[in-house]
Records
---
Amino acid sequence: MTQPGHTKLDKETVTKAYARWAPVYDLVFGAVFERGRHLAIEAAERIGGRILEVGVGTGISLPHYSRANRICGVDISEPMLLKAKERVAALNLTHVDGLWVMDAERLAFADESFDVIVAQYVITTVPNPEGTLDEFARVLKPGGEIVLVSRVGAEAGVRKALEKWFAPAAQKLGWRTEFSFKRYAAWAERTAGMRLAERRATPPFGHFALIRFVKDGNRTAEGANQPFIRAAG
Ligand SMILES: C[S@@+](CC[C@H](N)C(=O)[O-])C[C@H]1O[C@@H](n2cnc3c(N)ncnc32)[C@H](O)[C@@H]1O
């Protein structure tokens, strides 16, 4: 059952929506989300190493990562990912190790594969945000970080009313307008070994936030060169 204030999204709606967005995505959402993307990359690169970008979309962030890091990207939308692959080839982005069609909720990577998980404007588009964060925590190395840029719904007032009113239309476009920060905080509180480290308002309009979670433990370079895709079955 959908809880009050929890808009329901299903994967079919999301994949159909992003198949429609793919040809125009960069034009519509390129500049408007640029600052948030740069803040997320900056945060991710303070850790550095093997970075997984979930919901990589058209790969709009990929050229902005330092070549010193190794980047993997996944997205549920094949048309969006196709654009990302074109970008990697056109710009010769040799720091990108691979791009895969994959569901954020069921990542085909072994436990503790990545130093950082980045998801920009993604968590409010997945059907099960908390389950997705669980999956991020699983593939994250001890001492690593989850870096999100995400929409944060209003707690009260006119904006909250407007978000509620716009929710059904937003759902058809492939995202949620209602999404309380309490959900992130509650997830960190009940998830063993994960800690909320930062919430910082980001443009546009301060309706978004950079959110960082840290996984307990010390990071080691161990396993960095091991195969990290889980064997099927
Ligand atoms: C708003 S776009 C953000 C794209 C990119 N991160 C950016 O900064 O512009 C959301 C992306 O998340 C992807 N997405 C939605 N649900 C997903 C899921 N369950 N697993 C993987 N990717 C998903 C969509 O296909 C889309 O490319």
Note: Residues 14, 18, 29, 33, 37, 54-57, 60-61, 74-77, 80, 103-105, 120-122, 125-126 surround S-adenosylmethionine (CB under 6 Å).
---
Amino acid sequence: MNTAPIRPAAIVRDADGTPRSADYGDLYHPRGGALAQARHVFLNGDGLAERWRGRERFVVLETGFGLGNNFLATWSAWRADPQRCRQLHFLSIEATPPSQADFRAAARDPALAPLAAELADRWPPLTWNLHRRSFDADRVELLLAFGDIAAWLPQLVARVDAFFLDGFAPARNPAMWDGRLFKAMARLAAADATVATWTAARAVRDGLRSAGFVVEAAAGSGGKRDITRARFAPRFTPRPAPRQAMLAPSAKPAWRSTPAGGATRPVVIVGAGLAGCALAGALAERGRSSLLLERQDDVAREGSGNAAGLFHGVVHRIDGRHARFHRAAASAARDAVQEAIRAHGVRGSVAGLLRVEFGATGRDALQAIVDALGLPPDCVQALDAKGASELAGVPLSAPAWHHPHGGWVDPRGLARAALARAGGQAELRTGCAIASLRHEAGEWLLLDETGVTVAAADAVALCNAGGAFDLLGGAPWPVERQRGQTSGIAVTHLPANAIPRLPLTGVGYALPAIDGTVWFGASAQWNDSDAAVRPADHLDNLERLARLVGLPAWAPRIGLDDIDGRTGFRWQSRDRLPIIGAVPAALAVVAGFAGPATAPRRLDQPRLVPRAPGLFVFSALGSRGIASSTLGAQLLAAAIAGAPSPVEADLLDAVDPARFLVRRFRHDDASRQNPSPLFVQPPVGPMAGSAGA
Ligand SMILES: Cc1cc2nc3c(=O)[nH]c(=O)nc-3n(C[C@H](O)[C@H](O)[C@H](O)COP(=O)(O)OP(=O)(O)OC[C@H]3O[C@@H](n4cnc5c(N)ncnc54)[C@H](O)[C@@H]3O)c2cc1C
Ligand SMILES: C[S@@+](CC[C@H](N)C(=O)[O-])C[C@H]1O[C@@H](n2cnc3c(N)ncnc32)[C@H](O)[C@@H]1O
């Protein structure tokens, strides 16, 4: 996927104040006003009030977010309607978004101004991502796809109820109206989807018709003679691929991942660490209840039990899946941490983070990457050692990335806050260890070690770190366990210029003082299951800290008795990305799931791999679980609830539990010739470390 830098819109104003694009030479809305057009052409044109009435969720896809007036008008109408749907999702694609200042400064109808101000305060950085903002207690979700429409359309995973086509005039802006748009609309359209647009251009009407829409002209307003409305009525409905089927409960394909019994039973979540708690919160946001089964006597006692940890994005000269996933994840983490601090008093900060680049020749080398990627300063900045030292309050010896929206948090507090967010929608049962999983009579049974059924469910999410792979038979998963030890020293034992004001990372990490202690670390050992805190690891951590804060001389003088510590284990996949999504049918056979008799002919894309209905895994968060659990939970909750995916298809593939099987299919001639053995047998050999886990 090509992720070109995002350029801000060049907006000028006509004499009457109407905003015009300097790039396209066209108006953002008619002179009669944005709200009048939004209401007549889009809200009425798509019949929103009648169509969202009483529904669980309603999904709008807009082409061209522009100044956001159509979104604001839709949100405002939703707010005012007592019979509105429970949840409104508004996806919008925009190649050249306004800067935050331009968005804030845009003239608004008084009815929309307060909503615009709310969005302006949370305006996303101009990066190639699907930026998620939610409002009104998470009942309104805005997903803003920044980037060119041609690149974004194949990346959206959603069932769309209403399309708003709002590019500039087709003659000036043909990219917004070409054949790919109409084809993509047919792929994304829900059974009764409608389309509204202000244009009456023949090419647009023909394009809609050719994609299976029935088109009609309607009376225009604001100087337009007629406008276009359309309804999806295809002559045949192609069977959706398994992943798209997750979003199409009415389609009833042979292999679905949505739970068979509908949405009434709670989703059972095994494990209440960061992953499990974040999932419970994200499910509640999407109207689903959950039951968490946790073997410890409280949440976040294992991998997520450190005193604190940090979160930040990743910058890489190739803006690939890894960098994009972690940029999106860091943004979601920041929102969650900010909310946890505000609403629940969790210890943490979103005031920024520095990643020291010991290998870099100087700031210019970092700046060249920022320039090539076009990353804006509110996403990341390249600093020289002096500038970074001033921010950090310690003498750093190398240039650094400054992530202004990175930070640190107490992960236990973050997990509790996510659970609290779910409120009555989530029930936590502690002291409850799940020993096995069975698929019987169309439902999933969770059993304890005596073989007693603890819970039965239509949908189960395995969020129990390495235990998830044990429940799924262990060996096929390319995951490894890594031991890690953190160390903590009271500030009274440290020189003042060794205590950073911002979290630092580079060689290990160091956090600002938390309740009088500076936490740092962490060691990383494969094939090591020793849970004890080891003096030798404290010494290693001290060396890292000394190097990180640029003070090599003092570290050896600290006594080991002065150091506190904790050991934990990180589960990591071979490609260093988490494993999140529906479990491939082949890998659920171990739980008694009767897979299909024959494999599909093609398994070269994760989205084509058949799944075990209602069985999900969310694990292998590695050393970035604080950073990635919020986004991971959102994407999984969206899949379970049938809501639009908050990440692009490309990233769903990148974390998909089926990706290892797909790689095997792609790279092994024999598997391509005959995928059946691959499909019904464990597809991937274990990594060296998984045996002793
Ligand atoms: C030393 C160290 C430092 C780290 N620093 C950072 C950092 O700075 N930033 C960052 O982003 N990440 C960091 N991480 C990683 C992060 O902590 C993990 O990725 C994250 O905590 C994993 O969360 P989880 O919910 O997947 O696993 P866990 O927190 O381990 O949760 C799994 C839960 O499942 C329960 N469970 C397991 N099996 C069963 C069963 N059979 N039945 C019932 N319950 C079960 C467990 O008791 C546990 O509560 C660090 C990790 C370590 C070890
Ligand atoms: C008429 S304006 C949209 C107005 C907007 N719906 C509103 O309510 O304010 C058209 C928008 O389409 C965007 N656009 C034009 N070409 C594009 C492309 N190729 N990909 C994505 N967006 C594009 C423009 O930047 C512009 O913001």
Note: The chain has 21 helices and 31 strands.
